Inverse folding.
């Protein structure tokens, strides 16, 4: 499969932080993603009180939406600004604490306790720190991960999933020779080889 010029493209952590600082966040959806509403039943599968993971969560409004339904939400995001904007925009009080296992990391947790957002690199997380999840909403994570890191990302995600967990993944389809990404083009064949 030809992913064109994207194969070797690397977006640094600094570049992501800059996008947040400049407000260059066209990937953020103010109203939440219509596909989550459409496929919510697939994610929940008739279950309630799930632990749901939002990789590279940004300030996704769906985190509050799912928490309000009684689920416990955990997100990870490298931009502290994004996380603080989430709590401010959702009018949610929160407290902040260090994450002892990860140097320099912080956990911002809603005072109600049902939303915990980790400010660090996703690759610093492990199930021993965040536990395992019943569901994953991957709306902009796999397509934002540098192509050279996809295997590492998928392997991590698999270790964070409970046996019966549901993984909802949104990708984008386009000619990778015409756009350098992110979002990156991830062909279906690659998704199958990453996740089985």
């Amino acid at each position: 499969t030809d992913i064109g010029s994207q194969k070797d493209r690397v977006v640094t952590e600094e570049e992501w932080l800059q996008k947040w600082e400049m407000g260059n966040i066209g990937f953020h959806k103010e109203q939440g993603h219509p596909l989550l509403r459409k496929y919510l039943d697939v994610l929940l599968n008739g279950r309630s009180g799930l632990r749901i993971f939002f990789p590279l969560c940004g300030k996704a409004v769906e985190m509050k939406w799912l928490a309000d339904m009684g689920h416990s939400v955990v997100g990870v995001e490298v931009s502290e600004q994004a996380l603080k904007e989430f709590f401010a925009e959702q009018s949610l009080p929160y407290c902040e604490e260090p994450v002892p296992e990860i140097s320099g990391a912080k956990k911002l947790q809603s005072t109600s306790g049902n939303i915990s957002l980790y400010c660090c690199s996703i690759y610093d997380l492990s199930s021993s720190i965040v536990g395992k999840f019943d569901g994953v909403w991957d709306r902009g994570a796999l397509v934002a991960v540098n192509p050279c890191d996809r295997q590492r990302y998928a392997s991590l995600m698999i270790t964070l999933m409970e046996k019966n967990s549901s993984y909802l993944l949104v990708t984008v389809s386009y000619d990778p020779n015409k756009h350098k990404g992110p979002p990156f083009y991830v062909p279906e064949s690659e998704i199958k080889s990453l996740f089985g």
Remarks:
- The longest strand covers residues 161-169.
- The CA atoms of residues 174 and 185 lie 7 Å apart.
